[in-house]
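Q: Here's a chain of 202 amino acids. Please give me its 3D structure as C-alpha cells.
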Amino acid sequence: MDCPYNLANNRQVRMLADLSLVGCYNMSTVPEKKRAQLLLESAKKNLRDMAFFGLTEYQRKTQFLFERTFRLRFIRPFMQYNSTRAAGVDLDNATVQRIEELNELDMELYDYARDLFQQRYQYTRQQERRQQRLKNHLQQSRQGLGLGVSLWPSRSRQGSGSTLDDRGGEEEREEAEEGGRTEEAGSRLPTEDYMNQIINRW
C-alpha cells in the first residue's frame, strides 16, 4: 500500500474507463485530481452503455436480468453465497480505512453500479409484470367473447408451473438472501440510456 504506483488501487475504474482521456499511464499530462474525476466519469458512462452487467452479491437478480436482456434461459438457478475467503481475513480499522482511501474511486463506482443495477432490475421486473397483466386481460376478454383458443403460450408449456404473480414471495426471499436494499432503488426511475435500450429491444 505504500507504493504510489500500485496498479491494484482503483483497478476497476481503470478497467472500465477510457484511459486515452488522461494520456493512458502518463501521469504528467493531467493533474491528479482532474485525472481521477475524468476516469471515474468515463467508467460510469461505459457502465451505463453496457446492455448488461451483474453483481456478485446479487446472483438471482443478475440471472434474472441476463435472461431477460438476452432472451436466454439457464438450466439451473444461480446460487447465492454471501461469504467469501476475504471475509475471513482479520484487518484492523486503520488498515481498512487506508484501503478505502486508496480505492476511493472504485468504491464510488461500486455504489453507482449497485444503484444502476437495482434500477434496471426494478424496471425490467415491472415491465414483465405489466406484460403478464396485459396477456391475462386479453385472455379473459377472449373467454368473455366465447373464444376458447389462447393466442399466448401457457407457462406450463414453457416448463414452469408458476405465474409472475406467484413469484412475489420467491422474489422477496431472494432479496433477503442477497442482502441488497431494493426499497430505495424501487422509487427511482432507470437511467434514460437503459430505458431506450430496453424499449428499442422489446
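Q: Can you summarize the key feature?
A: DSSP finds eight helices and no strands in the chain.
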